[in-house]
Amino acid sequence: MGKRPTRNPIERKTNRRGSESRGADRLSQPKRAQATLSSGSRSHRQYILALLLVVWTAASFWRPIRIDPDYAEAYCNLGLALAKDGEMDAAVANFREALRAKPGFPPALKYLELALGKK
Question: pLDDT averaged over the chain?
Fold first, then answer.
């Protein structure tokens, strides 16, 4: 079997037509949830669910960092989530924080380079 082509983890998943897939990654949920929060035509129930989604997503990425501030993998994962949500400045800051916690950490170096190329 041939080698699978590697995919840039910062790129959004697209379907055959080039549009973003429906079951896209969880990582872009905060932006979608914030759009739901800002739209005035949504029901109260949808508003609450969107708010809970934003809080849950943010907490799931910050929890490991609060437990261990030198956990480079957590900073790297948070950076990927932010990059997929279009927050490149915050993503770069988290990749740099991962490198501070673990100098020379290969995934952080790779993703930092990709994120700086996207800025």
Answer: 75
